[in-house]
Amino acid sequence: MASCTISLRATVLFFVGTFFSVVLNLLQKQRGIPNFPMEFYNSYLTSDWWVHPVVGVAAACIGLLYPFFDQKLGEPLVYKREWSSVMRCVAVFVGINHASARLDFADNFQLSLTLAAMSIGLWWLFDRSGSGFSLGVGIAVLATFMTQLVVYSGIYRYTKADFLFVRSWVPCIFFSGGVTFGNIGRQLAVPEEEEEKVKND
Prior knowledge:
Strand content: under 5%
Oligomer: single chain
Distance between the termini: 19 Å
Radius of gyration: 18 Å
Largest sheet: none
Pfam family, one: INSIG
Keywords: Cholesterol metabolism, Endoplasmic reticulum, Lipid metabolism, Membrane, Steroid metabolism, Sterol metabolism, Transmembrane, Transmembrane helix
Order of helices and strands: HHHHHHH
Transmembrane segments: 6-28, 49-69, 132-152, 164-184
Organism: Mytilus galloprovincialis (Mediterranean mussel)
Number of domains: 1
Number of helices: 7
Protein name: Insulin-induced gene protein
């Protein structure tokens, strides 16, 4: 029963992650932030279609990791989690992504500081757990490194890159995305956690 529940949660997270990848990628493309080289378009991959399922798989992994570590570490809930709180977290995450595409600063460093403050604010408002912060930082570091490898290989390209082939605010987006999909995963896991409590009682 538990494996079936995990599979269902992973499937939901995959499709939610894929959907957000499509929407947020469109926001970024409006400002010409990601830039696929023409020779890449002419290759066998033909487009950036692969980005969305990759993000979907990452969202599923993140959404399953957060409740797993909460359970293993015995992380106390700071807030009673409910879908309205999760939806507000999603709205703030979309706002942070929109800000990365729309806000104009004198340089990327100022934008990065602003987005970093917004990302930590998102964690403070909707998480406040040590495991959530640690996982968010780990996800940001790993995802940024993977993105840098992809950009270095010539598959993907950022305009005005200022942090080892990518924009300096990219880790902020990955951090806030980790917290957001972690909260979605936690909320999806709530019925399963309640069943475990009933069994233990």
